Amino acid sequence: MELEQQIKIAVEGCDVMLYDIINTKVNGDTIYRVNITAKDGVTLDKCQEVSKMISPILDINEPIRGKYRLEVSSPGIERKLLNIDHFKGSIGDKVKYKNFSMEVFRGVLLSVEGEVLTFTNDEESFTINYDDVLSASTYYDWNN
Fold it and tell me: Are both 8 and 66 inside the same structural domain?
């Protein structure tokens, strides 16, 4: 079984969902970051529980050569939407996306039906095809 699938099973056993896995460097340290989500939010205790569940898996199947640090966290209130499942999990959230013409749009994601994304903003509702999205993320209006 693939490592990501093993991690996904362990994460779901803790009643949360695997959002993504990122390998990154911070201040020279290699970090293996496992982002999790839950309908009712992610707590520090839940991150600790997931970390304890997946650490033995990573001891057997090292994800990175050499020294690394495991981090388990939420992807945050402003998170990248990297696949259609991320969009499905963000229904009702404010989303900004860029199309291949480099135009940026903002709106509340109303629905995801197949590959069609429906948004609304103050002026109108509109739909786009998932394949027309170059990049996307949720956003929070910090001014309110």
Answer: yes
Q: 126: domain range?
A: 84-138
E-assigned strand segments in the chain: 17-26, 29-37, 69-73, 94-99, 104-113, 116-120, 125-129, 133-138
Residue 122 scores a pLDDT above 90 = no
For residue 123, pLDDT beyond 90:
no
| Pair (68, 94) in one structural domain | no
CATH number assigned to the domain comprising residue 24: 3.30.300.70
Shared domain for 64 and 101, answered yes or no, is no
Calculate ∠ Cα 24-27-28, nearest 5°. 70
